[in-house]
Amino acid sequence: MDVTALCITLLMIVMLLFCECDQKVNAVSLHIDPNRAQFFQYESVIFYCEGVFYCEIIHDSKGEIPSCKTTTKGTQTGSSCTVNNVYPADSGKYWFDAGGGKRSNSVNIVVTNGSVILEIPALPVMEGEAVTLTCRNKMTSSQTLAHFYHYGLLVSNSFKGNMIIHNVSKSDEGPYKCSISGAGESAESWLTVRDGQKVTATPSSKELINSFSNFTTWIFVTVLVAVVVVVVVGLIYFAHSYWHKVMYVSTVRPGSDSPGNQTVEYRSSCGRSYYNLGLNDTQQHEQGASDPLAHTNPEDIYYSTIQ
């Protein structure tokens, strides 16, 4: 394998591992579309699992949602799962497992077979935002008189069917419901208001330490694997080059029978060969079946002439 191609491959592996590690370190979250806590029977709900490749939605009483196995799709930031034709039995709390014993935030929805629902955000709203609550009649889309209740107390009457909370605060948090004369009353759902400073606050020291520890472990393991692979491939490459390119070293030794005779020694990775040469003689090496140089390229063989 070419060394450059190997380095590029290893770099890509390291980047993929870093991306996977970064995704695991980042927080995961669950969103739904439409973002409301109440649904009519037979409506559809899309769950968005941020930070994971597979959206495995879990219901607090029914367990894993089977339809997610066939409707899961990838998104730019995670994955999604569509639940079609919801029923009152689908009411309850939902979340997804993020692996490693972690799980996402939970979302609570209510499904009714009645005629009135309160369109209220299912996800927490930021303190200071404007929040609109809508009382919706399944039988008609025309605007009708709606009554809104907070903790069971009437807080607003609207002929437009909606109630706007300007500059929402923690005091606006709590259960809401609505009613429409002649149509009925909605279920009760909770509005959660988050402090903007807490949402934007930096993670705690313990969270930072745990995240850094996990990230450092991944870096160490990745670098260690890369080093081992480079060393192994380097050894294989060196051995391959060494055994296929024979290096010869010739040395001259005095002969035993005559001062004028010399012994020429040829060394290779396959063994040694000795040839007796007289003065001013040139020995032409002949390759044989038992010759350790039999498979050597003739251009790589050096001959010595004894002067």
TrEMBL record:
One annotated Gene Ontology cellular component of this protein: external side of plasma membrane
Chain ranges passing through the membrane: 215-238
SUPFAM superfamilies: Immunoglobulin
Keyword vocabulary terms for this entry: Disulfide bond, Membrane, Signal, Transmembrane, Transmembrane helix
GO biological process, one term: immune response
Residue ranges annotated for the Ig-like domain, each copy included: 80-192
GO MF entries: transmembrane signaling receptor activity
Signal peptide per UniProt: 1-27
InterPro entries per UniProt: Ig-like_dom, Ig-like_dom_sf, Ig-like_fold, Ig_Fc_receptor, Ig_sub
PANTHER family in the cross-refs: FC RECEPTOR-LIKE PROTEIN 4 (PTHR11481:SF64), IMMUNOGLOBULIN FC RECEPTOR (PTHR11481)
Entry protein name: Ig-like domain-containing protein
Source organism (scientific name): Anabas testudineus (Climbing perch)
Source lineage: Eukaryota, Metazoa, Chordata, Craniata, Vertebrata
